[in-house]
Amino acid sequence: MKALVLDEVGSSFRLADVDIASPIGREVLVAVKASGLCHSDLTASSLGGWPVPAILGHEISGIVAGIGPEVTRFSVGDHVVASLQSHCERCDACQQDDINMCSNPAFVARTEEQEPRLSLEGVPVTAVANLGGFAEQVLLHENNLVRIDQPMAHEIACILGCGVLAGAGAVLNAADVQAGSTVAVFGCGGLGLTAIQATLLAGASRIIAVDVADDKLEYATKFGATDVVNSATEDPIATIRQLTEGGADYVFDFVGRPEVTKQAYESVGRAGELGVVGINKPGAMLEISIGPEFIWNQVRIRPIFNGSTNFLRDIPRFVALYNEGRFNLDELVSRTISLEEVNDAYAEMTGHIGRTVVTFP
Ligand SMILES: [Zn+2]
Ligand SMILES: [Zn+2]
After folding, report:
1. Could you say which ligand is closest to the alpha carbon of residue 160?
2. What is the pLDDT of residues 295-343, one digit of tens each?
3. What is the 146 CA–ligand 1 centroid distance (Å)?
4. Is the domain of 134 the same as that of 188?
5. How confident is the model at residue 42 (pLDDT cuts 50, 70, 90)?
6. Between the chain's N and C termini, which has fewer beta carbons within 10 Å?
7. Phi, psi of 289, deg, nearest 5
C-alpha cells in the first residue's frame, strides 16, 4: 500500500510502498478515506522519540476492510474514526472511564515477538501513536476506533479524531466553561476555531479571539468570536483586561510558545483559569511572577492533553451536534489534498486558514 514514510527525524515525508499485515486478535484493518494534517505531526516529525522508519498521521476516517477473530465491536463496512487514545480497559484510569490517562497504552500494540504490523523491504515501520494515518490502510487495535453511525463525509469526520476533541474537549471537558463567562482564545488554527465554537455552545457571554493574522481573526468571527485582537499590532493583555473588566474567566493557549503562554496567563482574571493546549518544545520554561498577587489572584494553570476527552463518549456527541447543525465542522476543513502534497501543505501550514485533509479514492 502507498504510505508516507519518515526515514529520519527532521526529514520530509517520502512516498513508499509499505507492506501491511493481516488483522489478528482484536485488530481492525481500515481502508483510510481521509487523514487530517495536525500540527502535532509536524512537531513530532522534527522531535522523534520513536524508531524510524515511521508513518505519522493521527486524524483518520475510513471503512473497516477486515477484522481479527476476536473483534466484537466492528464489522467489515463500518465507517470508523480513529483516536490516539490507546487504552487498556484494565488500569484504574480505564476502569473509571478516564481513558485519557491510561497507564498501559502499549496494550493496543503488537509485542516484539509478533510480526510487525508494517514493514518496508523487510524493515519494521513504526505507526506513530499506533495509528500511522498517512497511508492507504491502517491496522490498529479496536480500542483505537469508534464507529460513526450517522452519515458524515470522511473529510469532515477525520478531524473529530484529534482537532475537534482537543479544541472542544479543552472547553467542555477540561475547563468546563460556564454560561455567562468571558473567554479568550490564543491561536485561531483548527483547534482554536473548534474551541471558539464550543465556548459558544457552553454559553459564554464574550469570546475574544487572539492571533497575529487578520484573516484568521476574521474567520474566527464566523465561528462565534465576539471580539478579535491582533497580538502583532496590539497588546492582547491590556485589551483583554479592558474588555473583561480585569481579565477573562477562562483563557486557552493553543499556540505552544512560552511568550504566548505568558501573555495568556496574564490575561486571566481573578480566580480564573488558563488552559494550556499548544505543545511547547522540550525544555521550554514559563516565567511568571509569584509575588503577592499570584496568591491574591488565585489563577489556575491547567495543562490539557487531547481535550481531557474520552473519545468513545465525545466523538458520538460531536457527531450528533454536527448533525443537529449546532457544530460547524464543514468550514473547519478548508482544503483537501493528495498524499503527494503533504510535504508542501505542512511547509505552508502556518499561513493557512482551517484544516487540510488528505483524501483517498
Ligand atoms: Zn488503561
Ligand atoms: Zn493532533
Report:
1. 2
2. 999 999 999 999 999 999 999 999 999 999 999 999 999 899 999 999 9
3. 17
4. no
5. confident
6. C
7. -75, 135
Whether 323 is covered by a domain: the verdict is no
Domain that holds residue 301: 167-305
Does one domain contain both 188 and 225? yes
The CATH number for 172's domain is 3.40.50.720
CATH number at residue 53: 3.90.180.10
Q: Report the separation in Å between the CA atom of 195 and the middle of ligand 2, taken as the mean of its atom positions.
A: 14
**281 pLDDT band (50/70/90 cuts)?**
confident
Q: How far is the CA of 190 from the centre of ligand 2 (A)?
A: 10
- Looking at the CA of 40, which ligand is closest? 2
Does residue 138 sit within a domain?
A: yes
- Which tens digit of pLDDT belongs to each residue from 141-153? 999 999 999 889 9
> From the DSSP assignment, how many helices (H) and strands (E) are in the chain?
11, 20
Q: Clarify whether residues 259 and 350 are in a common domain.
A: no
Rounded to a whole number of angstroms, the distance between the first and last alpha carbons of the chain is 13
Number of domains forming the structure of the chain: 2
> How much distance in Å is there from the Cα of 69 to the middle of ligand 2?
30
- Residues 113, 81, single domain; the answer is yes
pLDDT digit string (tens) for 105-152?
A: 999 999 999 999 999 999 999 999 999 999 999 999 999 999 999 889
Q: Report how far ligand 1's centroid is from the alpha carbon of 95 (Å).
A: 7
Contacts of 170 (CB under 8 A, 6+ apart): 191, 195, 198, 252, 275, 277, 304, 307, 308
CB 67, CB 76: distance < 8 Å: yes
